[in-house]
Amino acid sequence: MDRPPTMEDVARLAGVSRALVSIVYRDAPGASDATRTRVLAAGNDLGYRPDHRARLLGRTRTRLLGVTFDVRAPFHGDLVEVLYSAAEAAGYDLALSAVAPSRGESRAVQSLLDYRCEALILLGPQLSPSALSALAESQPVIVIGRKVRAAGVDVVRTDDKGGSRLAVEHLLSLGHRAILHIDGAKFPGSAERRTGYRAAMRHAGLSPFIQPGGRTEADGSDAAKTFLNDSPPVTAVTLFNDRAATGFLDTIRQSSLEIPRDLSVVGYDNSTIAALSHISLTTVAQNTTALANQTIAIAQTRLTDPNATTAAVVIPPTLVLRSTTAPPRSAGCTG
Amino acid sequence: MDRPPTMEDVARLAGVSRALVSIVYRDAPGASDATRTRVLAAGNDLGYRPDHRARLLGRTRTRLLGVTFDVRAPFHGDLVEVLYSAAEAAGYDLALSAVAPSRGESRAVQSLLDYRCEALILLGPQLSPSALSALAESQPVIVIGRKVRAAGVDVVRTDDKGGSRLAVEHLLSLGHRAILHIDGAKFPGSAERRTGYRAAMRHAGLSPFIQPGGRTEADGSDAAKTFLNDSPPVTAVTLFNDRAATGFLDTIRQSSLEIPRDLSVVGYDNSTIAALSHISLTTVAQNTTALANQTIAIAQTRLTDPNATTAAVVIPPTLVLRSTTAPPRSAGCTG
DNA sequence: AACTACTACTAGAGCGCTCTAGTCACGAGC
DNA sequence: GCTCGTGACTAGAGCGCTCTAGTAGTAGTT
Question: Which domains does chain B have, with CATH numbers?
C-alpha cells in the first residue's frame, strides 16, 4: 500500500535514464527494440503506470475535455457513452462532472476548469446565454441538445422540427388525417417539436390540433385522462417524448380503446423504455453517435484553429417503427 | 484565449513571492490580513484559479476518490449525487468514471488510477472477487450495493434480506397470507431478497411461493402473463425491483384484476418511477444518504489508519407506502 | 544590550513527468 | 585519417504548485 512506482523506479530497475523510460512509454522514436522490451518488462514488474497529472503538467495541451451531464437523465447517460468512444478515437480524454439538484451547473463547470480541461461540453445546460458566453471567453464551449444563441458558443442538436415532421408524415402515410399533438409545455425542445408538427400538418393541408402536456409519465397520464374525457375525433397522437407517451399509453390501455387499432401513438427520444416489448412504442430517435462525433469534431477544430467560427450543427433524427402505429380503422374499412 | 494565469502572475501583480500567494490561496497561516486581501484582489483581477493537478502533484495525499458507476442505472445516479455531498463534507474530491457497454469496468478503473485516486468506490461492480482483491492491494476499494467477499475489500450495502422482510411483514399486517415473490433471477441482490422473503414467510408459519422473474420492465410483464395464466391463489406479490414491478403492474392492469383491490403489489428501490402518480407503487427504499456517508467514512479511516480492518456495513432499508397495497378482499369481508 | 519569541515574508527544492539540447559510439564517404 | 551523419541514449530545465528552512523585523524580558 506504499506509493505507486515512478518513472525513476522503472529507470533504475531497467538500468536506463528517466528520459528513456519516458520515450518508451510515449512510444516515441529514440529507443532500440531491445531496451524497449527491457524497460516495459521492468515497468510491468513494478506495476508502473505513468502519472496522468504529471504528464499533463508539462504539456501545454491537456487533451482533456470536460463534460457536464445530468445524473438523472437517461438520455445524458447514452450520450456520455458515445462521447467516450468519439473522444478516444480523436485522442482526447474525458472528465465527467455531474449536475444534480444539490450540485449546480456552475459548480460542475468550475471543477472541470480546475482540472484545466481544454474545452467544455455541456449536455442540455440550463445556464443563461450570457453565462455561456462568459465561459466561452476562456475556452471553447459546446452545448449539446439545447437550441441556444450565445456568442462564441457552439451548438450540436437534433433537428426537432424535422423529427416531428417525420412522426406526422409517417402517420399521414398510414392514412391518418386527424392527428393530435400533445406538447412538452416549456421544456427544451418543446417549441421546435410543436412547430414541426404544425408545419407538417399545414403542409398536408390539415389543421393542427394541440393539447398541452409535459415531459413526465405523470404528465402523459394526465393528458390521457383529458383525452378520454374530451374524446376528440382523432385517430393518432404524437407526444413530446417517450416518458409522456408511456404514461399516456398506460392510461389509455386501461380504457376501452385499443392501440394501435383505435389510436396510433408516436413518442420521441427512442429511450430504452420505448423498446421494451410490452410498450413497443413507435418513436423518433436522436442520433447520439452523430451528436457525439460532431461535438468532438467541433472541439478539435476549435482547439487547433484559433479563428474557427462558431458552429451550429443540426443532426437529423430517424423514425423507429414499432407496434403503436397502424392504419386508422376507417382507412382499414375503406382501403 | 491564452493560457490561464499562474501563481507567478498573481505574485508579480501583488508584489509578493509565489509562496505567499500559495499561503493565501490555501488559507494557511503566515500572511497578514492586508496582504491577504491584496493578493486575492490581484488573483481576482487576473481570473486566477489554482491548477488542481499541479497542486496535487506535490502533495502525497491527493484527496481524490475515484467512483465508477453505470451510466444507465438510475439508482447509480442517485448515489453519485449523495456521494458528492458526503465527499465534499469530508474534504475529498470525486473523480467520475462511467461504465457502459462499450467501456468496461476495468477500463473505467484504470483511468481513475491514472489520476492517482486515493481510493476506489465501485457502484455495483461486476468484477470478480479476485480482481477486486488485486485492486485492493494498491489502494482502498469500497464496493457499494453488492454483497461480495473479497480480501481487503470494504462493502457498504442495503440489508436486502431485511428489505424483503419489511415488504412481507407489511403485507402480513394488512391480512395477507398467500404472498408470492417474483425474484430477480441471478442479478445482484436477488438471492438476498429471495432469502429474506422466504425467512419472513416461514417465520409467520406460511409456506413461501416463488416465481422466477428478472430485473427489467419486460421481465415483470412476462411474469404477469405467466401469473394471469396460472392464476395462483395469492392475494399479494412482492417483486425484485421497481422496474419489474412496473412491467408487472402494466400488464395486470390490462386484465380484469384491479389493484390493490384484487392484488397487492410491492416493489423494491423506490426509484423515481415508483413515485409517479399513475404508478404510485408501494416499495422498499434504500437509504442512499446513509450508504454514501458510510462509504466516505470508511474511505477516510482506511486512508488515515493503515491497519484498519475490512469493513462490511449494512444499511437498513425503509418501507414507502403508496397505493398498490391494501387488505385482501377476503380479509375485508371477514374483518 | 543581549536574549528569546513571534509574525510576515522569501528562496529554493521537489512532486513525476516531457522535452530540448546535448553526448557518445560507430560506420560511411571522401 | 578526417569529417559527417545517424541511432541510442542522458542531463537537466521546466510545467504550476506545496513545503521546509530560513531571513528580516518587531516586541517583550531580563
Answer: 7-50 (1.10.260.40), 64-159+287-316 (3.40.50.2300), 160-285+320-334 (3.40.50.2300)
Contact in structure between B53 and A56 (CB atoms under 8 Å): yes
The pLDDT of residue A130 is above 90: yes
Helix axes B160-174, B190-203, angle to 10 degrees: 40
Q: How confident is the model at residue B334 (pLDDT cuts 50, 70, 90)?
A: very low
Check A80 against B98: CB less than 8 A apart. yes
Q: Taking Cα atoms as reference points, which of A62, A136, A23 lies closest to residue B53?
A: A62
Q: For chain B, give the mean pLDDT.
A: 92
In Å, what is the separation between the CA of B43 and the C1' of C20?
Answer: 32
Contact B157, B146 (CB under 8 A): yes
Alpha-carbon gap, residue A47 to A136, rounded angstroms: 40
Say which of A84, A218, A306 has its CB closest to residue B1: A306
- Whole-number pLDDT of residue A52: 87
In angstroms, what separates the C-alpha of A335 from chain B's closest C-alpha? Answer: 30
Can you tell me which residue has the cell 389509455? Answer: A252
Q: To the nearest whole angstrom, how far is the Cα of A207 from the nearest Cα of chain B?
A: 32
- Spanning CA of B109 to C1' of D17, the rounded length in angstroms is 27
User: Can you tell me whether residue A3 is helix, strand or coil?
Assistant: coil
Range picked from A252-256, B122-126, B249-253, B291-295 for highest mean pLDDT = B291-295
Which residue type does A28 have?
Answer: A
Cell numbers for A255: 380504457
Which chain A positions have a beta carbon within 8 Å of B82's beta carbon? 102
* Distance from the first to the final alpha carbon of chain B: 76
State, as a whole number of angstroms, the distance between the CA of A44 and the C1' of C4. Answer: 56
Q: Do A111 and B93 touch (CB under 8 A)?
A: yes
CA distances from B121 to B232, B279, B286, B306 (A): 43, 33, 18, 18
Is the alpha carbon torsion for A284, A289, A290, A294 positive or negative?
A: positive
| Contact between chains at A138 and B77 (C-beta distance less than 8 A) | no
Contact between the CB of A34 and strand D at under 7 Å: yes
Using pLDDT thresholds of 50, 70 and 90, give the confidence band for residue A1: low
- The DSSP bridge partners found for residue A314 are A157
Which residues are registered as beta bridge partners of A173?
none
User: How many distinct helices (H) and strands (E) make up chain A?
Assistant: 14, 12
Contact A100 B115 (CB under 8 A): no
Order of strands, sheet of A318-320, starting from the edge strand that comes earlier in the sequence = A210-211, A179-182, A236-239, A264-269, A282-285, A318-320
pLDDT band at B217 (very low <50, low <70, confident <90, very high): confident
User: What is the pLDDT at residue B330?
Assistant: 66
Task: Flag if A277 and B80 touch (Cβ within 8 Å).
Answer: no
Task: Say if residues A319 and A166 touch (Cβ distance below 8 Å).
Answer: yes
pLDDT at B59 over 70: yes
Cα distances (Å, whole numbers) of residue B322 to A235, A251, B221, B264, B325? 35, 18, 21, 11, 7
Q: What is the mean pLDDT of chain A?
A: 92
Q: Could you check whether the bond before residue B260 is cis, i.e. omega within 30 degrees of 0?
A: yes
User: How many helices and strands in chain B, by DSSP H and E?
Assistant: 14, 12
Query: How many CB contacts within 8 angstroms connect chain A with chain B?
Result: 146
